[in-house]
């Protein structure tokens, strides 16, 4: 059974979220202030986090940042203000999804399920395949989510890592930007296929010696991308 941590100081909202999620078969724990939330997030084993942004004590930004330093568990950020959502996205904290209050609890449940399924798929496929992908100078530890280029470790955001690992796990397969966007992002509302282009560019800057002549991720003009082996 998947375990979810809700950090939310408005108890009525927390209770509503908890009820719906429990009815959908999830195990739910609630923390009603930032400090307790952060403590439970770091010490507990959860499959997904739902973080309110404005909290007494430690706010949702800090909790999100600290979870991401250590874990790749899906995070849904919640805020009462649309402006805050734009701010969270801009900060690139590594949250997987954003919702503006008030939202329907069934929408929340749908998103929770989608994120858990995607996370399972990503980690599951990593376990079926080799845990280490090694292609020329590029080494990806899909279990520990670490990447080395010619022996030097590089840091990747969650999405950059997911995209690189997905392409490297399916070498010589050409994917369109739409396919990659659906595979890695899922939620059509959070962005568009231009996001894929931006992430490919960032990945190339980290893995390629010469980004104008990429040796790993090849652009297939008019179609999409292919990981070369
Ligand atoms: Ca709040």
Automatic annotation (TrEMBL):
Mark the residues carrying the PTM 4-aspartylphosphate.
Answer: 52
Q: Where is the Response regulatory domain?
A: 3-116
Which Gene3D superfamilies did the record assign?
3.40.50.2300, 6.10.250.690, Winged helix-like DNA-binding domain superfamily/Winged helix DNA-binding domain
- DNA-binding region ranges: 130-229
Q: Record's SMART domains?
A: REC, Trans_reg_C
Q: Which SUPFAM superfamilies match?
A: C-terminal effector domain of the bipartite response regulators, CheY-like
> Where does the record place the OmpR/PhoB-type domain?
130-229
Gene Ontology molecular function terms on file: phosphorelay response regulator activity; transcription cis-regulatory region binding
Q: Which UniProt keywords apply?
A: DNA-binding, Phosphoprotein, Transcription, Transcription regulation, Two-component regulatory system
Q: Which residues cross the membrane?
A: none
Instruction: Look up the record and give one Gene Ontology term from the biological process aspect.
Output: regulation of DNA-templated transcription
**What's any one GO cellular component for it?**
cytosol
What is the purpose of this protein? May play the central regulatory role in sporulation. It may be an element of the effector pathway responsible for the activation of sporulation genes in response to nutritional stress. Spo0A may act in concert with spo0H (a sigma factor) to control the expression of some genes that are critical to the sporulation process.
Q: What protein name applies here?
A: Stage 0 sporulation protein A homolog
């Amino acid at each position: 059974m998947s375990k979810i941590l809700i950090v939310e100081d408005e108890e009525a909202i927390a209770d509503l979220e908890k009820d719906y999620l429990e009815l959908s078969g999830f195990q739910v724990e609630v923390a009603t202030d930032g400090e307790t939330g952060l403590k439970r997030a770091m010490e507990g084993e959860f499959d997904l986090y739902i973080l309110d942004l404005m909290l007494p004590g430690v706010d949702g930004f800090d909790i999100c940042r600290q979870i991401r330093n250590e874990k790749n568990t899906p995070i849904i950020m919640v805020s009462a203000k649309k402006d805050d959502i734009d701010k969270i996205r801009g900060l690139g904290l590594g949250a997987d999804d954003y919702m503006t209050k008030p939202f329907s609890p069934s929408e929340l449940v749908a998103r929770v399920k989608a994120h858990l399924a995607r996370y399972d798929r990503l980690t599951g496929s990593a376990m079926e395949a080799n845990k280490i992908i090694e292609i020329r100078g590029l080494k990806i530890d899909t279990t520990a989510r670490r990447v080395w280029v010619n022996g030097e470790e590089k840091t990747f955001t969650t999405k950059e890592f997911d995209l690189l690992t997905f392409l490297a796990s399916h070498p010589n397969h050409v994917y369109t930007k739409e396919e990659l966007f659906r595979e890695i992002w899922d939620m059509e509302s959070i962005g568009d296929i231009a996001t894929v282009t931006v992430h490919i560019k960032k990945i190339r800057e980290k893995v390629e010696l010469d980004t104008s002549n990429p040796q790993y991720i090849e652009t297939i003009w008019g179609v999409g991308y292919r990981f070369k082996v």
